[in-house]
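Records of this kind hold a single protein each, on a pair of labelled lines. With that in mind, the following record should read easily:
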Amino acid sequence: MAAASETRLSAAETDALRKIAGTMVPADAVLGMPGADDPAILDDIVRSVGRDLPLVREALTAIATKSSGVFAEMDQAAREGLINDWYASGGAPAVALGRAILGAYYRDDRVLLALGHEARAPFPKGYVLEQGDWSLLDVVRGRQPFWRDDRVVPIEDR
């Protein structure tokens, strides 16, 4: 069985994540929006990291390394600049970190309400979507398949 530290973020990693999340999505009192470092949102981020845990840890390490270990002591503008620079070339760890932070942020009821949405899941009620131009898909529908169709049994296996 894996040790607990291998399956969830440590207290130090969670603190680093809090600083990074708050930098990526700061609170906006004028709009009534909490920051991604809000305790409820941070708890959701930590709980929902799941399979991305190794990549999120890699992202936290990369940001700490890039900041020479003083990320928390930097001012907001310097933290934003550092994250923007790193994010552009951060690859899969950057994507995983962004997905974890933004996914939890936009699940928060306060954020949904501030954006003018009902604080609920999108289904089963759903949302009305404006119909687009379906003819744009004709090119895709008309091309030959470029994948193996696993519904077809090969002749030698019949």
Q: What stands out?
A: The mean pLDDT is 89. Helices lie at 4-7, 11-24, 39-48, 53-66, 76-89, 91-105, 109-114, 138-142.
